[in-house]
Amino acid sequence: MKVKKNVGKVDQIVRYFLAVVFLVLTFQVSYWFFIGAVVMMMTAYFSFCGLYKLFGINTCKIDYSKVEDEDLE
After folding, report:
1. What's the domain range around 10?
2. Distance CA 73, CA 62 (A)
3. pTM score of the predicted model
4. What is the mean pLDDT of the chain?
5. 48 in a domain, yes or no?
6. Domain total for the chain?
7. Percentage of the chain surpassing pLDDT 70?
């Protein structure tokens, strides 16, 4: 089973940028920012956000209703 992407390219770039910012804040302010850095990095890398799925948000341009099941495997 393949997870459908719901994070678009621009959103992905913003998440990578925020991951770097949170990583810097980890060393300057508090180690708790490391959790945010990891979350941002993972959601950007996998192009999937659980909160987006929960709220029905999709910034990805791929329309999965037009893609056949064989293409997803």
Report:
1. 1-55
2. 15
3. 0.78
4. 87
5. yes
6. 1
7. 84
